[in-house]
Backbone:
């Protein structure tokens, strides 16, 4: 029974990601209509594959390798994953029309300094949330291989490509 519940939860996470893509597409259209410039197009498909792969691998590892639900691990990971969802929407709400799954900068826009972006010590809060969720979601049902592989690949993608691209793009924004 726990496997079925877990699969439903992972699929619900997938539906949530589709909702994010709708929001992102709407925000991208708005940004482009206001002169937005996209950065990092070459690494974006790898991000899509990695995040889709995370959801598929969570299900595959649990089903194919018969991973058990271990309450002492699974329940805290569920709480963390749910907190990550709240964090994702805090980020989306804080960035408003500037939030996107892509890196699009509108010339003349100012940097956001509300929500989690008001904390100077917390750089790129969305990526911290994604990293934590990439560990919590698979470990809910002890899919440790998925958690490990996603974490390593996500770190490479974020640290080598996405964050440097975003930092260069954000440098063009006005200070608040």
Residues:
């Amino acid at each position: 029974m726990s496997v079925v519940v877990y699969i439903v939860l992972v699929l619900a996470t997938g539906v949530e990601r589709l909702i994010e893509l709708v929001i992102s597409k709407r925000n991208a259209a708005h940004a482009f209509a206001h002169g937005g410039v996209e950065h990092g197009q070459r690494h974006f498909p790898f991000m899509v594959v990695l995040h889709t792969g995370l959801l598929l691998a969570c299900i595959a590892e649990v089903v194919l390798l018969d991973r058990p639900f271990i309450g002492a691990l699974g329940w805290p990971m569920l709480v963390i994953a749910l907190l990550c969802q709240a964090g994702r929407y805090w980020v989306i709400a804080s960035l408003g029309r500037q939030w996107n799954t892509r890196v699009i900068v509108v010339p003349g826009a100012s940097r956001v300094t509300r929500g989690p972006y008001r904390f100077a010590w917390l750089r790129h809060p969305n990526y911290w949330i994604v990293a934590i969720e990439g560990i919590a979601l698979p470990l809910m049902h002890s899919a440790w291989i998925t958690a490990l592989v996603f974490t390593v690949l996500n770190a490479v993608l974020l640290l080598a490509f996405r964050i440097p691209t975003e930092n260069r793009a954000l440098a063009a924004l006005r200070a608040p």
The longest helix spans residues 2-33. The longest strand covers residues 37-39. The chain has a mean pLDDT of 95.
